[in-house]
Amino acid sequence: xxxxxxxxxxxxxxxxIIHLPERPxxxxxxxxxxxxxxVSDHTSSWIHHPERRKFIEELCxxxxxxxxxxxxxxxxxxxxxxxxxxxxxxxxxxxxxxxxKIHVFAEGMGALSALKWMHRHEGIIRSAAFMNPCFSLKTxxxxxxxxxxxxxxxxxxxxxxxxxxxxxxxxxxxxxxxMYEYPSTLPVKIWHNMQGTPYSFIKHSRAYEKFRxxxxxxxxxxxxxxxxxxxxxxxxxxxxxxxxxxx
Length: 247
Description:
Elements: E1 6-11, E2 14-19, E3 28-32, H1 45-48, H2 50-61, E4 65-69, H3 79-95, E5 102-107, H4 110-120, E6 125-131, H5 137-144, H6 148-162, H7 166-175, E7 188-193, H8 201-215, E8 219-224, H9 232-242
Helix pairs in contact: 2-9, 3-4, 5-7, 6-7
C-alpha cells in the first residue's frame, strides 16, 4: 500500500487514516473496528495485517473512500466513540467530494458504537455491514462471567471506557439493553463466523436479526462455516452497491 493512497490525521487526540481510491465512485465507508483494532501515527491494524490490507485495497479499487480512527481503543460503544464517529463524518464529507450518505463496516465491539450512531443519525448512513458483531454488553459479559480472569478484565475495560467505578460498571452490564435500545430501519447485512470469535452467533447476530424482523427493518444474516472460503470484500461491495441507487 503506497504512501500516496492513504493519509494520516489526528482528531480528538486520536490517530486516524483515510484511504483514497485512484478512481473515486463518490461513496465513503466508515470502518469501526473490534478490540484489536488500532491506528498509530504511521500504521494501523488494517495496514499491518495482510488480509485486512487486501480488504481495504479491494474496496479502494472499487472506488470507495475508506476511513477509520483509533477511536479511543477499547471503547465498548461509549459516548465518546459515537461523538467522534460523527465529528469524523462531518470532517471527511467536508474535505472530500463524496455523497453525504455513507456506508458503515463494523466488526465485533465496533457494532455497539455503530448501533448508537445509526439510531441517532439515520439520515446520513446508507447501509451497515457487520462482521462477527457484539450487539450487547450484557450478553457478552454473561458469556465471559464463568472465566473469572476474562470477566475481571472486561469489567475493568468497561469501567475505563465509561468512566465508572468497577461496581458501577457491573451495574451497567446488568442493566444494559444493547440492541433493543437503538432501533434502526437502515439496510443491514451481517456475516458471522462459527469459530474464532468471542461473540455468540445465537445471542448476538441471530438475536439482532429477530429484533429487526419484529420491527420490520431490512436484515440479511449469513453464517460462515469453519474452513469455508469466501470473498468477503466482494460480498460487502455487492451489498453496498444494492443500496446506492438513491441519492
